[in-house]
Amino acid sequence: MFYLNLGSQASKKIRKPKAWKHSEAITREQLMQMREEFWDTAPHYGGRKEIWDALRAAAEADITLAQAIVDSAGVIVQNPDLTICYDERGAKYELPKYVLSEPTNLIRES
Predict the structure, then answer these.
(1) Tell me, which fold does domain 30-98 have in CATH?
(2) Three-state DSSP string of the chain
(3) Which one of 23, 66, 71, 104 has the lowest number of neighbouring Cβ atoms within 10 Å?
């Protein structure tokens, strides 16, 4: 087991992910289903449930609240868009962009 140096990584400022495009146009309902499936299975990939819960709360919050959540949970932000994070024990948490923002080809309901 290794431990990461919390140094400047722990206080890295987060930002919204860059624009991205899904492989095919999807509806908001499909996007929400993908997100639910990810969050339901995420703890099975390792790491601690409380960190996964904090990451979900951060992903669903505005950027200011998200920053406060990751800071208070002790999440070490590798990528400022939250796609790669670590906990203080060195466990890695990878978040797909679809849980962090909407694709550019989201089908808008009329």
Answers:
(1) Bacteriocin As-48; Chain A (1.20.225)
(2) CCCCCCCCHHHCCCCCCCCCCCCCCEEHHHHHHHHHHHHHHHHHHCCCHHHHHHHHHHHCCCHHHHHHHHHHHCCEECCCCCCEEECCCCCEEECCHHHCCCCCCEECCC
(3) 23
